[in-house]
Amino acid sequence: MKRCIAKWTKKDRVGYLFIFPAVLVLFVFTIIPLVISFIISLTNLDIFLAWPQFVGLDNFKRTLGDERVWNAFKNTFYYVVISVPIQLIVALVLAYWLYKPTRFNKMCRSVFYVPVLCSFTAIGILFNLILNSTVGYIPYLISLVYGEPIALLSEVKFAMPIIIFISVWKAFGKTLIILVAGINDIPSTYFEASEIDGATKTQQFFHITLPNLLPTINFTLLTTIIGAFQVFDVVYVTTGGGPLYKTETVVQYIYNRGFSAPYDLGYASAMCIELFFVIAVIILIFKGYMERKIARNM
C-alpha cells in the first residue's frame, strides 16, 4: 500500500486530473448508453416505454432473417469501401501539394476546410436543391444535352455515388489538415539528403513521405472508417434510404425501426449492438495490420 501511495506523485495526480473530464464524458455518453442499448436489445421495448418484456436473443435472431438488415449492411460496406480510400487519396495528394507554409497554400487549406465546419444536414439540403429535377441546376444542364432533366437522387445507379461524392467533398478537408501536419513533422534533413543523392519528388514521396506518414495515415483511416460505418445524416436528408432501399445504411435502418412505425426500440438496439461488434472487429484487424506495417518501417 505504501509503495502504491509513493508512486502516486503530484505529477501523476495532475495528469489524471486533466484526463478526468474526458473519461467522464466517455463514460456517460458512450459506455453507459452502450450498456443500456444492450439491455434494451434483450426486450421488446417500444418508443412508448409500455411494459417491456424480456425476449432474450429473439431480436438478434430476427435480424438474421431480415433482408433489409443485410441490404443495409451491404450498402454500408459499399459506402465505406468506396468513400474511405477516395477521401484518403484526395487528401494525401493535396496535402503533399500544399504542405509548404506559403500564403497560397494556407489559403487553399482554409478553403478546403470550410465544408468540414458546415452541418452535414445543411450540405445535404443544398445538394438536394442543386440536384432537384425541377429547380436544380445540374439536371437543367443535363436537359440541355439529353432533352429532359434526370432526377439523379432517384436513380438507382446515381444515388449512392452522389452520396459518396457529397461525403468526400465535406470531410476530406479534415483529413487534409491532419496529413499536412504529419508531413511537416517529418525532419527536413531526410528530404535534403535525398536531394543530394539525386532523388526525384516522386521517389521522395514513396520512399520518405509515405513511410514516415504511416502513423498519421493509420489514425486518419481508423477515424474515417468508424465515421463512415455510422453514416446517417447525408442519407436521411438527400434520399431517405431510397430509391428501392439502395442507399439505406445500417444507421438509417436503425432510425427507421426505432423512431418510426413500428417503433421497435428493442430490435433497433439489437442492430446497434451488431453494428458495434462489426466496427470493433474490423478496426481491431485493421489496427493490428497497420501497426505491424509501421513496425516494419521503423
UniProtKB/TrEMBL annotation:
Where does the UniProt entry say this protein principally localizes? membrane
Q: Where in the cell is it found?
A: Cell membrane
User: What domain of life does the native source organism fall in?
Assistant: Bacteria
- Gene3D superfamilies with a match to the protein in the record: MetI-like
Parts of the chain that traverse the membrane: 16-40, 77-99, 111-131, 162-183, 265-286
* Keyword terms of this UniProt record: Cell membrane, Membrane, Transmembrane, Transmembrane helix, Transport
Mind telling me which Pfam families this protein's record contains?
Answer: BPD_transp_1
Question: What biological-process terms (Gene Ontology) are attached?
Answer: transmembrane transport
Q: How does it sit in the membrane?
A: Multi-pass membrane protein
The UniProt entry's GO CC annotations, sorted and at most eight, read: plasma membrane
| Boundaries of every ABC transmembrane type-1 domain copy | 73-286
Q: Which InterPro entries match?
A: ABC_transporter_permease, MetI-like, MetI-like_sf
| UniProt similarity note | Belongs to the binding-protein-dependent transport system permease family.
For this entry, the protein name equals ABC transporter permease
